[in-house]
Design goal:
Blueprint: H1 4-12, H2 16-22, E1 24-28, H3 30-37, E2 43-48, E3 58-59, H4 62-68, E4 77-82, E5 94-99, H5 104-117, E6 121-125, H6 134-140, E7 148-152, H7 154-160, E8 165-175, E9 185-190, H8 198-201, E10 206-209, H9 223-233
Parallel strand pairs: 2-3, 5-6, 5-9, 6-7, 8-9, 8-10
Antiparallel strand pairs: 1-4, 2-4
Helix pairs in contact: 5-6, 5-9
Length: 234
């Protein structure tokens, strides 16, 4: 049985300030909890109904599961996981840099895409949505356990890794098929509404574009869709 204090704590982790205060976040559902258990992330506690087949769980009622879950349809188990302390340490030759991405679903999808295409590192500007937000965790489908994310000043990150070529995604750049590739590159993608900030765009870089049909009247692509196309091309 869950105590009132446990319920209050777990529910509070839906907010970033409480995740930071307690150093904890939540993962929900059988698949995602099993992903975490098979990773190097440290689990603080597991709360599950009797239908869950895993071990080391506190068995709770369906009613209590609903009280601590952020999902409309709770799925058997909620895990409380300790937050890792990240360090800006790039290990891969292709890196994603995200400038002001606000939508949790988009960030989660981009993390999943990075995992699919073998991109190990994502650098996020400090104003990006928190990747441990429950909606981001859900949409990443467990890929957050395999991709290294860091939040920092993009300007500082680019200075630290000045040996990487910057590829800025813009509307009027060099078509992907014509771009000059590089062994070490950072692909920079901007927010859904504003794109890459002017300060970042002023840096020396290659500007790249996903060409659209001459008959198209679409103004832009969703950032996660654009990420899929670009990562597939490079």
């Amino acid at each position: 049985m869950l105590t009132k204090n446990q319920i209050k704590l777990i529910r509070s982790l839906s907010l970033k300030k409480n995740r930071q205060k307690h150093g904890l976040f939540i993962v929900e559902g059988e698949k995602l909890v099993n992903e975490v258990l098979s990773s190097d992330w440290e689990v603080e506690g597991i709360y599950a109904t009797k239908e869950w087949l895993g071990e080391n769980a506190t068995i709770i009622s369906n009613n209590d599961l609903s009280r601590i879950s952020s999902l409309k349809t709770p799925n058997k188990v909620v895990a409380v996981v300790k937050i890792k302390k990240g360090t800006l340490d790039i290990n891969s030759n292709t890196v994603l840099a995200l400038d002001g991405i606000k939508d949790p679903g988009n960030l989660g999808t981009i993390i999943r895409l990075a995992d699919w295409f073998g991109v190990e590192d994502i650098i996020c500007s400090n104003d990006c949505v928190d990747y441990l937000n429950p909606k981001v965790v859900q949409s990443s489908m467990g890929s957050f356990t395999r991709v290294n994310l860091n939040y920092t000043s993009l300007m500082d990150a680019f200075k630290k890794y000045s040996d990487y070529k910057l590829l800025m995604t813009v509307l009027n750049g060099t078509p992907l098929s014509e771009m000059t590739n590089a062994d070490k590159k950072i692909v920079v993608m901007g927010s859904e509404s504003k794109g890459i900030s002017n300060k970042i765009l002023e840096l020396t870089s290659d500007k790249i574009t996903i060409p659209k049909s001459k008959s198209s009247k679409a103004e832009s692509l969703n950032v996660s869709v654009a990420a899929a196309i670009i990562l597939s091309a490079i």
